[in-house]
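User: I've been trying to design a sequence by hand for this structure and keep getting stuck. Would you show me what you'd pick, starting by listing the structure so we're on the same page?

Assistant: Good idea, let's start from the same input. This is the structure you sent:
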């Protein structure tokens, strides 16, 4: 079993992806070379704004190349709670933004001719308990009644075999928009598009300090200083203390994945007849899908720490996989790996500023679509192409006891395990 991401092991970095020397001066310096930073750079470059993506490692080192590849509308916070917290006007704008995020991703793939094995099969939420299925029915009715949204379909337990080769669940909810993609192919293809558009991609360029100097910024890196008119922090689950006030608005949670050996075509059809991406409704949820070469990939966690042993996590995930699909008993696990996702204290993605430094993050596991869209939105705000984004209307939250070390995660993890047990 390899302890490397399957997505990167099965697809090599393109030979023509350039890594450039950091410029001495640029309109926008972007810290972080994942989906958010690359989409921002692509948008800016196409508007004639010079941008430099400053990546401390290499493109694909962070979550953008190691995630579950699931593309879906919606936010981490359930949409009814979004409406309750932010009101009907902003709530509707945020919901529409999540739909636009899926459309933006699909348009980018088409416009830039990025081949990342994108499927259009939609998603399937799976009810872990009977009460979860009842909640799905209520959600579908609410979406139709309040938002005139009909791109979901409730699937009762007696029909669940039409969607998944498992009897573990009490029903499901088909989400007809979105699908799945190969994350490494996506991020590398996106980086190639950024380079073609004329933005600068600077790998192995760690940002050490950001200082205000009059109307501009000095960005100090391990490869020299850069003068920038604007700075964007786009590091999500890998955000450090570079700007302390920004770090205090987000914390990191670990997620872990495994893949099986390739399965027979008959087994693939049995497990996922409609080739949808899938996830369950546990507090410690699992998410899974078939890969383009016929493996089953599953991700999840039974702990929130980003520092668990990946081999031990692989054993736990393999056991969970067999609980869901007993027919996979004995199938070899070929790869195991981990990544980090970023969660804000209000469980909402947003665009903000601290001392004139922009940041966009907090996708909470919904980042494949949302991260690129917020990258586009923050780019438009920076360039003046737009003066409004609903995601910039969300007030950031933090805790007076949080200063970059998420000491509370073990307590939260124990509570989640308890809820999964009693549910």
């Amino acid at each position: 079993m390899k302890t490397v991401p399957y997505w990167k092991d099965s697809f090599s970095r393109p030979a023509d992806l350039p890594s450039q020397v950091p410029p001495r001066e640029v309109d926008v310096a972007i810290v972080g070379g994942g989906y958010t930073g690359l989409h921002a750079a692509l948008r800016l470059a196409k508007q004639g704004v010079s941008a430099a993506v400053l990546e401390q490692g290499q493109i694909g080192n962070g979550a953008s190349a190691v995630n579950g590849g699931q593309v879906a509308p919606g936010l981490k916070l359930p949409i009814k709670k979004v409406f309750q917290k932010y009101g009907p006007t902003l709530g509707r704008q945020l919901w529409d933004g999540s739909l636009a995020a899926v459309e933006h991703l699909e348009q980018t793939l088409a416009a830039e001719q990025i081949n990342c094995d994108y499927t259009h099969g939609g998603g399937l939420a799976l009810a872990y308990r009977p009460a979860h299925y009842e909640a799905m029915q209520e959600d579908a009715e609410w979406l139709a009644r309040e938002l005139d949204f009909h791109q979901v379909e409730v699937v009762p337990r007696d029909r669940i075999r039409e969607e998944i080769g498992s009897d573990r669940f009490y029903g499901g909810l088909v989400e007809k928009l979105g699908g799945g993609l190969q994350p490494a192919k996506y991020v590398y293809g996106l980086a190639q598009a950024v380079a073609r558009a004329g933005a600068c991609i600077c790998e192995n360029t760690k940002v050490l300090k950001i200082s205000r100097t009059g109307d501009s910024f000095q960005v100090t890196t391990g490869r020299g200083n850069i003068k920038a008119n604007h700075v964007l922090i786009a590091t999500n689950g890998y955000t450090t203390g570079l700007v302390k006030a920004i770090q205090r608005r987000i914390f990191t949670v670990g997620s872990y994945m495994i893949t099986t050996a390739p399965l027979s075509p008959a087994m693939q059809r049995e497990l996922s007849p409609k080739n949808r991406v899938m996830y369950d409704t546990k507090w410690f949820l699992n998410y899974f899908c078939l890969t383009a070469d016929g493996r089953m990939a599953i991700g999840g966690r039974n702990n929130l720490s980003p520092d668990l042993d990946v081999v031990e996590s692989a054993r736990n995930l393999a056991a969970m996989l067999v609980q869901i699909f007993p027919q996979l008993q004995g199938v070899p696990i070929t790869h195991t790996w981990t990544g980090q996702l970023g969660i804000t204290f209000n469980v909402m993605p947003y665009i903000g500023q601290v001392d004139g430094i922009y940041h966009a993050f907090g996708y909470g596991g919904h980042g494949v679509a949302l991260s690129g869209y917020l990258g586009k939105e923050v780019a438009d705000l920076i360039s003046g192409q737009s003066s409004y984004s609903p995601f910039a209307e969300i007030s950031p939250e933090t805790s007076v006891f949080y200063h970059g070390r998420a000491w509370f995660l073990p307590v939260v993890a124990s509570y989640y395990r308890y809820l999964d047990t009693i549910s």
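That's my pick for every position. To get oriented when you compare it with your attempt: The chain has a mean pLDDT of 96. The longest strand covers residues 333-344.
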